[in-house]
Amino acid sequence: MNIIVCMKQVPDTEAQIRVKPDGSGIVDSDIKFVMNPYDEYGVEEALLLKEKFGGTVTIVCLGSERAIEAIRTGLAMGADKAVHLDDPAFEGGDAFSTAKALAAAIKGMEYDLIFCGKQAIDDDLAQVGPALAEMLGIPQIVVVTKVEVSEDGKKAKVNRQIIGGEEIIEVPLPAVLTAQKGLNEPRYASLPGIMKAKKKEVKSVKIADLGLDPNAVGKAGAKTQILKMYSPPQRESGNIIEGETAEETASKLATLLREEAKVI
Amino acid sequence: MAKGIWVFAEHSDGSVRKVTFEILSEARKIADKIGEELCAVIVGNQVEALADKCGPYGADKVYVVENEMLNQYTTEGYTKALTDLVKQHQPSILLCGATVTGKDLFPRVAARLETGLAVDCTDIGLDDSNQFFVKRPMYAGKAYAEVGFSDATPKMASIRPNVLIPSPPDESRKAEVIKVAVEISPDDIKAKVVEVVKIAGEKLDLTEAEVIVSGGRGMKGQENFKILEELAEVLNATVGASRAAVDAGWKLQSEQVGQTGKVVSPNLYVACGISGAIQHFAGMGTSKYIVAINKDPEAVIFGKCDYGICDDLFKVVPKLTEEIKKLKKD
Q: What is the ipTM of this complex?
């Protein structure tokens, strides 16, 4: 079974995000970048399926040179090889133009299943997976918490989170599944894994390799543009309620919630 | 030329969801400014009765797209129904709620229509030259962006529930109802829902809850969440949890609030035994009122909450439940 995992490098969840004074983006010089946490679940699930069915796990990553670190992490976890769309022409895009480049790269590959993270935790778009599925003409199931592939590898039974529960969906493969936390517990890269990863193939893919029009990808091909970024209003430190007993503070709080905030 | 503002009217269990009314109300203002009509689109099976609910919130027309195959939501069925109608009428703007359904449907629809989509927006509007733009959080709300669109239409956006304010409904306002047939064959739907598993006791989804009571590491164990459930009961709230509480196995992942959980913006967020780490705050920082109950005076959440009580939550929470019960009786 050949599985593709789409992966993105993003700021760590603990990172403080500071917007540049001119609103053109964020200050990224002092940020720690990691593999998108939801993509880790995708890598892990792909590896579990490979252990059961054999085949290969290929990481496909669109991003700058820096993203090679995240790619190596995925290879160290156990993925077999990687495709790195590292042409600057691919960068600065929105979900549409990013999916366009990914789809063009994936079209020429053999695959039975594609994993994406349910969203990247930087731009929080949650739409590259579905857009990719549409462009490849295959079904999508988003926010997936469980995957069971049939013995013959031709279809899958997938749980997807919905309000108040889960849907169980049967889908013929190939399909795009977007991974949610809870799907599995991603493994850590072992030391031998890290050593092996250094020798694994990472294929650099440029725009000319895909035969795409430069105006169709990256910033030029985007259908939405960030006009400006800004920081959210800072919350002020509020009213710390004093009192002798828990009863007294609780009573004061209940009164404030009713009379001042008017929320109860 | 593309014309008309459309709102995908989401429904469940036989009623139109509140987020639809929130969006219709705001979209009405935009429609008036640019002189275009406002239409709602209801997709489903035997859903015509819902059409009357949209007029009072500002819809001029309601398209009702019905087919037996649309009885249950599927990505492929709904995508076909909506894109076929959009291609026929070419609206300029297409909106929906950033709900479980909206987040699945709209990315697929946008890709098929080869147009731009901004998701999980917290505001929509027109710039000085009447161009549609949106505001949306990024980095789970650690930063915000104003987002504009290319010339491709419809310009699409999904809007976070609970942030736009619905207008008071004008019951005298009637929308024209237009029934539309759509052809869908069983072959069109490859990913089929075979079962729906409800998780018992789970109330309104966190992302749509108006009040949330949330517990963190300070809860010390799964069994202690009972006091939060009791408080939630009197507040008509949904119970959430921090990453620490979920990672400890005390609560389900679907109950996690934060950057790798759900991003919520209720009217009231009561954080119990939660320190307020940046990744948690990213998930609830836009709540209208934040209450923090924590015995650690150094907890960062005290610097960002509206009301704080620095005390043992196991003493305060039960008392708070009692006090609110008393107030509600008066």
A: 0.94
